[in-house]
Design brief:
This is Prenyltransferase. By secondary structure, the protein is mainly α. The protein has 15 helices and no strands.
Length: 276
């Protein structure tokens, strides 16, 4: 493993690449909606995403009890106290930050926080909905800083792009669920694949992949935002290739590193649109 790979591995274990991906995705939608996001809003988003993901991993690491089967959960077991303190510090910083964000963002952020709370309660009883719930909450989170303050009326093209992005987020989580299925069974961690089985999961992954490109096709017809649609479609394509060549990407958890990195692809749109 090279020095870069080793560093990126720790970045991934700490969910920092997910945080960067969320911030990039938020900037992507802000550019699409022609909204300027305040830096404090991006900081609040990044901290919130990191705290939620870290808290989820810490909860799993704690409930497993024994030494976890996955590297991610073992990492959170070994550094449990340090990460718990860091997560609590993140919450405290966010409490201060909310006094500086826009009122609309704060109000809808509170609504989203309630949604996260409802998910945590419902997830105990409807465990097979874990992936779709997280995908919806993630999409709402990255949309929050821009969609709550935009002065533009959302068009059919906007809604199609949002649906397309949410499908990509769902596909990402289903593919991760597939790769983690054996470890999840050993650790008794519920997921879509452990609850509904491999045939249903495999079919769902390919149906989601097809849906992403069907929505992209409709978007090309309904909107002038073709470059944005193409970027999100490319994200779906990369995920589909990961699953198509799953034996190769299963080695060294490559699927997770590349799968999370797809949310950095909107950077290309940001660079392209800034040069117009």
């Amino acid at each position: 493993m090279t020095g870069f790979s080793r560093v990126y591995r720790y970045v991934n274990l700490l969910s920092l690449d997910i945080v960067v991906g969320a911030v990039v995705s938020a900037l992507f939608f802000a550019r699409v909606l022609d909204v300027a996001i305040r830096p404090v809003g991006l900081l609040a988003l990044g901290l919130t995403v990191w705290v939620i993901y870290t808290a989820d991993h810490l909860r799993d690491a704690y409930t497993i009890g024994k030494s976890a089967s996955t590297l991610r959960h073992r990492f959170h077991q070994e550094h449990f106290k340090t990460l718990l303190i860091a997560a609590l510090a993140g919450v405290l910083v966010n409490v201060v930050i909310v006094f500086f964000i826009r009122k609309q963002v704060f109000v809808w952020g509170t609504v989203l926080a309630i949604g996260v709370g409802i998910y945590l309660i419902v997830q105990r009883y409807l465990k097979f909905l874990k992936e779709i719930c997280i995908a919806c909450l993630y999409t709402c989170g990255v949309l929050l800083p821009s969609i709550t303050v935009t002065g533009d009326t959302l068009t059919t093209g906007h809604y199609l792009l949002i649906v397309q992005f949410m499908l990509v987020a769902w596909l990402n989580l289903l593919i991760f669920s597939w790769f983690d299925r054996e470890d999840d069974k050993q650790d008794r961690q519920p997921s879509f694949v452990t609850m509904l089985g491999e045939p249903v999961t495999r079919a769902s992954i390919w149906c989601l992949t097809g849906s992403i490109f069907v929505v992209a096709g409709f978007s090309f017809y309904h909107t002038e935002m073709k470059p944005a649609v193409l970027i999100v479609a490319t994200m779906g394509l990369v995920l589909a290739l990961i699953f198509a060549f799953r034996k190769h990407f299963a080695q060294h958890d490559s699927y997770r590193l590349l799968g999370d990195a797809v949310f950095l692809l909107p950077l290309f749109y940001l660079v392209w649109s800034s040069n117009l």
